[in-house]
Amino acid sequence: MDYRLPCENMRDIAYGGGIREILSRADELQRSGRDILHLEIGRPDFDSPEPAKRAAIRALESGDVHYTDMAGTPELRAEVAAKYKRDAGINVDPDSELLVTAGAIEALSTVFLTLLSPGDEVIVPAPYFPPYEDIIRMAGGVPRSVQCVIENGFRPQPADIEKTVTPRTRAILINSPNNPTGATLRADELSGIAGIAQKHGLLVVSDECYEKFTYEEGAPHIYMASLPGMRERTFTVSAASKTFSMTGWRVGWLVFPAQARQYIMKSHQSIATCANSFAQAGVAEALRSCQADVGRMICEYKRRRDLTVEMLSQINGVTVPVPSGAFYVFPSIEGLGVTSFEFCSRLLEEEGVSTVPGQPFGAPDGYFRATYCRPVDEIKEALTRVAGFAARL
Predict the structure, then answer these.
(1) Rounded to two decimals, what is the model's pTM?
(2) What is the rounded distance in angstroms from the CA atom of residue 372 to the CA atom of residue 195?
(3) How far is Cα 53 from Cα 137, in angstroms, rounded to an integer?
(4) Are 110 and 264 spatial neighbours (Cβ–Cβ below 8 Å)?
(5) Taking 80 as the threshold, does the pLDDT of residue 173 lie above it?
(6) 8-47+292-392 — its CATH code?
(7) Cα–Cα 20 to 30 A to 120, which of 37, 273, 334, 392?
(8) How confident is the prediction for the chain on average, in pLDDT?
(9) Per-residue pLDDT tens for 240-268?
């Protein structure tokens, strides 16, 4: 039977070669008895905070197992709003400007399904999180990438973004700190992007899932919505997943201008109805009482970052910029004389180290992504194997 698949909105989406396929191959090798070191998946290795787990258990035991308000429980929305007041000085109305979602991916899907008409363009600095392109296309939009370069640490430059603006441009999507590069936008760069959005009447979708993962002294995360004139044109996406090591809880949120609420809610209703009820109770407790857990985790990630950069920098043929945020490195391997796919494939098969080539992130050949959200001993062993493999090349 002819199902006429893929449909028009999915025609240009890649269906292979991504992170999940690499993880599946790594898991297959591990099941066969191979010793595999996982540097491919961006998943914090810490447990979720104990108070959050206890709060979720209490919610379950008290029968909190039904639908919540579509926008999220009042308790969690109040805590998220308090977080933005505390962290960024932004006043968020928890009833009209905030939606709790089933993770950040659902928040992104909701916002693009709401904002995009067929053919609308979204400027996306590359390298980028691969689902960005897929979600924009499935919503009927057209992603327009702006390639960022290693020479300035992969930070998107406002001048390059402005060159990409056309009459069809609807929004700019930014991700700072960035997955996969760890790049963190500076104040002048954020202000430049804000100025472009205001000049051309554009919206900004700001993915801030790694907002707490910043490592440079005196350079905390800057919230796009906190900049002058940007509150009414910014849609902010974040989640508990990375900040509190709660990836499996599937709770995120979207902060948006109140005028968009009825349309945002209609899209969310059609995608997810509501986020998990008892997970919301746990996330509310995490926001309320678990900041110390976050601080300890960030200190450990900084230690791992420094180790990862130091070891990779000693490998001939590898160039690694120092990431200022998130928990990824995005080195160049152009000096090794192999393609990214060959490098990552052979590294997995021959050395048992699982990484991701740069192309799924919209990067040119010659780069790969590795995470440092693994224990220090595993990082040392994995990068020792990488060094041995690179020496053979």
Answers:
(1) 0.95
(2) 34
(3) 37
(4) yes
(5) yes
(6) 3.90.1150.10
(7) 273
(8) 96
(9) 999 999 999 999 999 999 999 999 999 99
